[in-house]
Design goal:
alpha/beta, four-stranded mixed beta sheet, 11 helices, 14 strands
């Protein structure tokens, strides 16, 4: 989005989220349950349609609209390919943060414009704290509760611990909370209690973040925070930005089948190697090394 605005384009974001940033940008929130239907009605009014990821139904709706309205389209169709007016193209590199740039690099600049101005997030009413993000979009990315208990034991007792997550994470975080509360740690459970603004604020003002491959981890990298990220089946080299304050832990060589990274964008993926690339991580030692460098 920032690159499109810098090229001089007027940008409207259609999203199911409340507005995340403002400035040279329009933001229109759509109903989550009717998102694709509502979006299909609106796209014929735009000159350029940029959809980072889409379903087959939405892609077909967009293509159908092209017969009655002239617009350029940029749309991801798989991990390797994207679609534009000039045909299907292959990404030169799979790094997630670079794919969008490749999709739109053919757009010429119109005129100079200001970059996006990001919202100033409120500082949480907490002293020093560590933010923990245990949950990913899929179970296959996750450490077990025993590993998280050991990680929490390694956090200095004077530090607050903040757990974050969404509705589907309530069960896992609730179980973890019961295990770590008897340790006398100062734990705050914000699972399903924050909106997107508040979550970003919690990440931005944390002393450091401990996470698996998850949204809060990548937000932390964006804010250039001290963050340690435990990777397993996903490909750290194509996802993490490797910012100078990011510590990536990836025990690919611990997979007995030598197939890590093996993550696929399918629901409830099972691991034939019992997630050993994650469960074999010496989480305490890795966290201590990370803490010593802070």
């Amino acid at each position: 989005l920032d690159n499109l605005i810098k090229k001089g384009y007027d940008v409207t974001v259609y999203s199911t989220f409340d507005q995340i940033f403002f400035g040279e940008l329009k933001w229109k929130k759509l109903n989550k349950n009717l998102f694709e239907k509502q979006l299909a009605k609106k796209i014929s009014k735009e000159n350029i349609i940029f959809v980072p990821r889409t379903s087959i139904n939405l892609l077909l709706s967009i293509l159908a609209k092209r017969f009655v309205a002239k617009f350029s389209i940029f749309c991801q169709i798989s991990e390797d390919y994207f679609f534009t007016n000039t045909g299907i193209k292959m990404y030169r590199g799979k790094h997630f943060s670079r794919q969008a740039d490749q999709m739109t690099e053919g757009l010429s600049a119109l005129h100079d414009s200001k970059p996006i101005t990001f919202i100033k997030y409120d500082k949480p009413d907490l002293d020093d704290y560590v933010l923990i993000s245990c949950n990913g979009t899929e179970q296959i990315k996750m450490l077990n509760t025993t590993q998280w208990v050991e990680l929490c034991r390694t956090i200095p007792k004077e530090m607050h611990i903040v757990l974050v997550g969404v509705e589907k994470d309530l069960a896992f975080n609730g179980k973890l909370l019961k295990l770590i509360k008897p340790l006398g740690l100062k734990v705050h459970d914000f699972t399903c209690k924050t909106n997107l603004f508040q979550l970003f604020g919690l990440v931005k003002y944390a002393n450091y973040i401990i996470s698996i491959d998850s949204g809060p981890a990548h937000v932390a990298e964006h804010f250039n925070k001290d963050v340690i990220i435990f990777y397993g089946p996903t490909d750290s080299e194509n996802i993490s930005k490797f910012a100078n304050r990011t510590k990536v832990i990836h025990y690919k060589n611990k997979c007995p089948l030598n197939i890590s990274p093996c993550y696929k964008q399918i629901e409830d993926q099972k691991c034939p190697a019992n997630k050993e690339c994650l469960y074999k991580i010496d989480v305490v030692n890795e966290l201590r090394i990370f803490q010593d460098k802070l």
